[in-house]
Amino acid sequence: MRCAVSVLVLALAAGAAYAQTAPSDPAPAASGTARAEPANWPRAASPQSLSDPATEALISDLIGRMTVEEKVGQLIQADIASIRPEDLLTWPIGSILAGGNSSPGGDERAPAQAWVELARAFREANAARSGTPIPLIYGIDAVHGHNNVVGATIFPHNIGLGAARDPDLIRRIGEATALEVAATGADWTFGPTLAVPRDDRWGRTYEGFGEDPEIARSYAGPLTLGLQGPIEAGRPLQPGRIAGSAKHFLADGGTRDGRDQGDFVGSERELIDIHLSGYPQAIEAGVLSVMASFSSWNGVKHSGNRSILTDVLRGPLGFEGFVVSDWNAHGQLPGCSNESCPAAINAGIDMLMAPDSWKPLYENTLAQVRAGEIPITRVDEAVRRILRAKVKAGLFENHRPLEGRLEHLGAREHRALAREAVRKSLVLLKNENGVLPIRANARVLVAGAAADDIGQASGGWTLTWQGTGNTNDHFPNADSIWAGIEEAVTEAGGEAVLSPDGAWQERPDVAVVVFGETPYAEFQGDIDTLDFLPEESLTTLRRLQADGIPTVSVFLSGRPMWVNPEINASDAFVAAWLPGTEGAGVADVLIGDAEGRPRHDFSGVLGFSWPRDATGRPLNREEPGYDPQFAYGYGLSYARPAAVGRLSEESGVAASTSSVDMYLVDGRVTPPWSLALEDSGGQTRIGNEKSVASPRGGVRMTVVDDLAQESGRRFVFGEGGGQALIWGGAVDLSRQANGEMALSFRYRVDQPPQGRVALGLGQGAVDLTEVLGTPPIGEWRTIKVRLSCFRDAGADLAAVERPFQLVSERAATVSVSEIRLASNEADTMCPAAAAGP
């Protein structure tokens, strides 16, 4: 856009407190090494029945008949958002997956029958292709139940299950999950997750069972057997069982500063003692696949580390299944791209997860095999491992007796199991003045916006990748925490009142306040401190405390957080983690009988040490200087009470923190970002002003109401000229683009643009003229533009200085609010590129 412009910019403040590193891993410590010595590792082995003679003879016959094209196809996995069933008539792709935001027809809330039909359509197309008949294997992230499908049972996330310390419970959850997945037509889940999170700032902490590998070691075998059942010679898995995948190999929970896809800087001894976790137990239970981690060891990405993937995994660990990479992880290796990476295959990756790059990756890999860059012996080895898993998973069998049996989805017995898991996962941190258990016939006030929000209680990886955008209507037959409390109280003759802000008309006997983190998933959940920032719940607790009302806090979170002020303002405090769809399990423990006797006691204990301050420094038992607020293994109960006393409210961090993904939220610009207006006369930065103009009046700003009072900003663009602003320190959004995140904001057109309008991010811009000129005028709407669109338009996403830039050529009036990054839930767009602002 070469003409005069008016500019609105959300710019990074100089000296910002938060700046992510460039996409390349930091150099390893001078004494570090990324080469594993197999002799140092413990010994394990896949069951001999996994590679029994009859299975191997069948595989040998198939490999002998397969063309090189068919063999290479087995090495490639495509995502259902980027491949259609009819593509399989031409392309011999061996695997598909439904990624976090992929679904039938792009509908994240599609009915279960649509999932069944999708699986059948792909299988039928694959079977119709001429050539050697090799079935497709279809994977999905069923990581806390069959969490992608409406109506499925959503179990607590692993952080809660780790607090339960119950391997048999884990086995039964594996069985229920497998049955629900099989009913909808998928063959394979990307679990169990065996990460050992060592820095709770990591956004995937809740996917780990605990900070100590002992929990994962006790769970890996039972969960694998729950999903797959035992591996038997000459027989496939039983109906209702699915293939598992132990992940993410290796040390994904040990990255420096808790950075997702980051670098584990440490010794081989630490790698073995801590991060080998439950992999030997999963292998010995017969797990059919292992997923390699995005992360690195001393600067070397695991996806290209032959000493880990081949020398160790195929050596002392004795793994006979296949290794699959993570989402386009191969593209992060030196010399590789998403479309070409012989190094990953040669290092030991058997199947490349290439969700949107599968076509060029297939063509390039085929050419590399023909040229000898990838030896055909290595291809045959990978194909043998993949076919072995397909045979054992029963994919060569035509009979699928449980597919389409949707009565298993969210079955009564599965919900009862999930409710049991919720009860066992709760950890009682404080219980003073006998406030718990609550008499069932009491008058109970239930406060907090999270109390009646099943989506928030379920967290990330729930219907959508980030777990956002869900309402209670998306969880049929499920119970929120409020619903569970209301049922328990009213059945006993008591009274329960829901009041999100904690206001009451008739004085309650006790108040239960439910609050916590809102949903997030990988890298979006990475934070720089453990300070729980929202103040609404603390305000409610203190007001109730001042009124002399006994208070019980139910804290929802994917990690321990510094909540000392909230604990001090509570008579009882319960770490409920992310319990899922069966909120009644919380009521089972909190609400006693009419005499106040417990119906169920607390049994959960901490799998993660609870922090004494908010700094987020790694806090793990048996490390030097270990000084937690509540230690690993801590957990009170009705049978084991203890006084807590008043806790320090010195957080150890500055009052404000920074955000890489939220820019304008609830009417406030989120630190370290600042709001600025600019025209040809220069720049005007905006603080707390409610009305301000750029130097020559080319653009004016006033506050407006949107989702809340004064939560939006109205920008009135005039005819004056201006230019794009180049501003301070940069943040790295390359990982977010790889995950197809989008720049999202609400907008309202109050005066249609009289000229061209562009939306910029970094150095890239897209044309919004048509979008903003489309009726209706005066109505709030939301737009999401994929980060990859800005990348394709010229933005360097590894160094974004301007995450939001609205550029108007001539007069226009546009109001905006809620500017942030959001996940692609099949609701994004990619307007045509515009000339850089």
Question: Radius of gyration over alpha carbons?
Answer: 27 Å
Count every helix, treating DSSP H or I runs of 4 or more residues as helices: 21
Please give the number of β-strands: 31
Structural class by sheet pairing and helices: alpha/beta
Straight-line N-to-C gap = 6 Å
Assign a percent range to the helix content. 10-25%
The main pleated sheet reads as:
8 strands, antiparallel
What is the overall pLDDT average?
A: 91
Characterize the structure shown.
The protein is α/β, with parallel strands linked by helices and 837 residues long. The protein is built from 21 helices and 31 strands. The strands form 6 sheets. Strands 19, 20, 23, 24, 25, 26, 29 and 31 form an 8-stranded antiparallel β-sheet that branches. The chain has a 6-stranded antiparallel β-sheet with strand order 22-21-1-30-27-28. A hairpin with a 7-residue loop joins strand 24 (699-704) and strand 25. Helix 13 (412-425) packs across helix 18. The longest helix has 17 residues, at 112-128. The N and C termini lie close together (6 Å).
